Amino acid sequence: MSLRPVSWWGERLLERGRDDELWVLADRGVTYGELRAQVEHLAGQMEAAGIGPGSSVAIRMAPSLSLLHALLAVWSRGAQAMLIDIRSTAFEVDRLLRICEPQFLVSAEPPSQVTTYLVPDVSPSVERRPSGRPASGDVCLVQSSSGSTGQPKVIGRSPASLLQELERYTLLEGMPKAGERVVLLNSVIHTMGLVGGILHGLQSGAQMAFPPRMRVGDIEETARATGAAAILGVPVHFALLARSGRGPMPSLRLAVSAGELLPGKVWTQFRQKYGVPISPVYGTTETGLIAADLTTGPEPPVIGRPASGIEVDIASGELRVRMAHSPYLWADRSDRFQDGWLRTFDRCDLDPASESLRYQGRADSIVAVGGLKVDLTEVEQTLLSHPRVREAVVVFGDIIEAHVGGDTELSTAELAVWCRSRLADYKVPKVFRLSAAVRRNANGKMIRDRDLLQAQKETDAHSHH
Questions:
Q1: Which residues have a Cβ under 8 Å from the Cβ of 11 and sit 6 or more positions away?
Q2: What are the residue ranges spanned by the domains of the chain?
Q3: Which residues contact 268 (CB under 8 A, 6 or more apart)?
Q4: Starting at the edge strand that comes first in sequence, how are the strands of the sheet with 80-83 ordered?
């Protein structure tokens, strides 16, 4: 089929590499020629199904090269892509489809057991939805974020927004360059993995490498075998590597953590083991990249200098980001976007010497206990300073409650003593819930919504008062 050419915002990204140049390394090397052929093939299927400029298309596929081909094919047709996480429940998917009403659903059934990081390539089906509405406004990417509070947010990004974010990455000193290999551990449907990983790789000529499984041995083997210059991931990946990895990799010059604040002990352990500090990248689904420091690898809670072209402000201790208009679709969200400023709900201060932002916890982490103010972030940091605690989330309802991930030998009595020796009595959690790991949402972020965490209570064999 010969495609009717459609001009789209990212054409140049797909045209950069020579046909025989490597694009990614997964279970095998994939060239730019193969990438373009796959995208053109899927774009042909989509044109036959009626997808074209202004169409709205939901994509629900397991992480795979096929997912990336489908996304690029949708964009190459001039259509809007809405990414749905394959881990979302049927209820969450139905709710999103009802809110957004895309005209088409591109999907593929995942394997019954997903044991690999990228599932094998599949041929997706294209289904027209009778109730669907065309894309409205200048939005090419729709993402939903449950954040950490369980309240779904539907976010739209324009071509200009994505291209500006790519430019911020290009100008960021230390980013991977043409010919360098990058072990990409971030989800390819979330902002850092998609823009800072896949799209920046297309723009810069850096090659993404994917481990076969998300295990320490596989991550290290992939990095060593490919001569990776960088590893991009989230704190849980670096915690695994710091705890169980083998140590120095001669080619590794950069480790980048995104998603949530990296625990200080993980930063220290990783640097000791690999000789490379973990560099922070801070951003939101709404804005993309906000701040980073890839050259000095500052110790947490420093999150780096505001990126080129980003305007930030600290109001009452809370970080705000300038935006031309609200990023939220189909909802007002006036609690988050007001007068051209997006509230991040992250408390930060600015180090005048380095001009770097320091993360000070969530703005909604201050609670009143018996008339006394308690910063739940301080309680979390106290728990995280315990040598056998790996993760901690502290929530408040009628009482302060700590959800802790750590060693099996850890006891609630030991944690209570630890906290009492370091915190005023009214700040000490009244309930500790212990497990191997704290619950996370589909985005991989630790859940901070008390009601969602309460659902765990009945099945948590280690719950104690």
A1: 76
A2: 15-136, 161-364, 370-464
A3: 299
A4: 125-128, 104-107, 56-60, 80-83, 141-145, 153-157
pLDDT at 33: 98
3-class DSSP state of 55 = coil
Q: Report which of 276, 172, 173 is spatially closest to residue 233, judged by C-alpha positions.
A: 276
pLDDT digits (tens, 9 = 90+) for 182-212: 999 999 998 999 999 999 999 999 999 999 9
CA dihedral defined by 399, 400, 406, 409, rounded to 10 degrees? Answer: -50
> β-pairing, 104-107 with 56-60?
parallel
Cα dihedral across residues 168, 170, 175, 180: positive or negative: positive
Interhelix angle 412-420/376-384, rounded to 10 degrees, is 120
**Chain centroid offset of residue 63 CA:** 14
d(CA 236, CA 248): 19
> Would you say the CATH fold of 161-364 matches that of 15-136?
yes
Residue 442 confidence (pLDDT): 66
Token match 């490597």: residue?
A: 22
For residue range 252-273, what is the model confidence (pLDDT) as tens digits?
A: 999 999 988 898 999 999 999 9
Right CATH for 161-364 from 3.30.70.100, 3.40.50.12780, 3.40.50.720, 3.40.50.410: 3.40.50.12780
337 in helix, strand or coil? strand
**Angular region, 317: left φ>0, alpha ψ -120 to 50, beta rest:** left
Residue 144's pLDDT is 86
Domain 370-464 is classified in which CATH homologous superfamily?
A: ANL, C-terminal domain (3.30.300.30)
CATH assignment of 15-136, given 3.40.50.720, 2.60.120.10, 3.40.50.980, 3.40.50.150?
3.40.50.980
pLDDT in tens, 111-153: 777 778 899 999 999 999 999 999 988 999 999 875 444 456 8
Q: What angle do CA 400, 380, 419 make, to 5 degrees?
A: 70
| String of DSSP letters for 206-247 | -EEE--SSSSHHHHHHHHHHHT-SEEEE-HHHHHHHHHH---
User: CA–CA separation, 52 vs 390, rounded Å?
Assistant: 48
